Amino acid sequence: MTRVPIEEIEAATARLVADAARLDEAAVRGPSLLPGWTRGHVLTHVARNADGGTRLLVWARTGQESHEYASAEARAAEIEAGAGRAPAELVADVRASATRFADACRAMPGDRWDVPVRWTGGAEHPVRRATDARLTEVLLHHVDLDAGFGPADWPGAFVADQLARTLASYARRPGVPRVRVHATDTGLRLGDEGGLVEGTQADLLAWLTGRADGIRLAGHLPAFPPLF
Asked: Which residues form the Mycothiol-dependent maleylpyruvate isomerase metal-binding domain (predicted)?
């Protein structure tokens, strides 16, 4: 896994922040595309995710354990506690936490990116994965805001990479249907078993990650459990 340049993450974050800044009080209290979450929940989650990634980067740089979150329960409680804040406060939090993450990336010595750290779920990965994870969080949850940014706005390289990773993730989970996909706009084909599903790269990823119902796709669409 390669390290995502911080400039790419900053560009994606700036676009999310610009859309979030246009939301008024009623909009941030309104539902997001994630069941049970308002837009305030999504924005709070994006901010706390940046702080979690920052802690992992600090751990790798200093050698002192600095966990992503105290626990899954603490993570959920922080999101719930912050979701009801005023629009300006929500946006300022996303912006400030993103700056802290960027600063931590730029402070990382080149020889520390391969240091393994432990995510909240218990898995250990080289800390460079925190950059890929952050870009994924920003781009997927930007769609979840339901504020004018949709799957078609995802960068093509990101979509192709995430399609492969999402299918691989499902393949590792017992009892999950197998599927083959064909991106009609790029020619990308992934998967070696299961029924064939066809559509644009973005529409395929939106469906596989639960951000679209697949109505724009062709083929037999099995039901998948939640992934993100």
From this structure: 10-145
Please state whether beta strands 189-190 and 195-199 pair in parallel, antiparallel, or not at all (unpaired): unpaired
Structure tokens at 61: 């740089």
CATH dotted code for 156-219 = 3.30.1050.20
Q: Token digits for 167?
A: 């299918």
Which tokens hold the place of 133?
């994870």
Was domain 6-149 assigned CATH 1.20.120.450?
A: yes
The Cα–Cα gap between 39 and 141 comes to: 10
How confident is the model over 121-173, as pLDDT tens digits?
888 999 999 999 999 999 999 999 999 999 999 999 999 999 999 999 888 88
Alpha helix segments (H runs only) across the chain: 6-20, 25-29, 39-62, 72-82, 87-106, 129-144, 156-171, 201-208
| Mean pLDDT estimate for the chain | 94
Task: Count CA atoms closer than 13 A to 28's CA, side-chain side.
Answer: 21
Residues of the chain with CATH 1.20.120.450: 6-149
